[in-house]
Amino acid sequence: MNGNSRLTTKKIVLVALLAALTTAGSALRITLPVSIGTTSFHLGNILCALSGILLGPWLGGLAAGLGSAIYDMFNPIYISECWITFLTKGAYGLAVGLVIRTGQRQWNYGKATLATTAGAITYAVLYLAKGFLYDGLLIEGLTAQAALIPLVGKLPATAFNAVIAILCAPPLAIAIRAALKKNHLALE
Predict the structure, then answer these.
(1) Would you state the pLDDT for residue 106?
(2) pTM exceeds 0.85 for this model
(3) For labelling, which of 47, 132, 134, 173 has a CA lying 20 to 30 Å from the CA of 182?
């Protein structure tokens, strides 16, 4: 987006589109039962990163958070935590957007990769902190040591989802950005 902070119809439509794609990407998942709960591999993180790259911090965070929370609302396993998902996935898109918008105006593959990495790390820290603080200490009433145990089972999927997003989001963003510019739909 350019320095213009006006909310346009085009921006609203792109936020809604990326939120819908994030919902769909979150639904494309493989849930793995582990001895201490479940963990999932999914494509939602790629769309969270794309939202931040293409829409910037605030609108990208909104699209990432809304899309992920909407997925949670349609899944009885996750519905009670949709508000947390909105915040954590919104932070994913926000972090990506903040990094992509700093410094030089134009971004490239390297900057998109750096931004996606920052977003993935931000989300991983928030997701694991939620697992420890909210799930472990608050909901389950576990001791701090016991609350750390389930996080071990979540680390492989969390790392895998982060790596997939880091590998896939930057080239997709470059291709989508080129298509948007070609069709006079770019926000920049």
Answers:
(1) 79
(2) yes
(3) 47
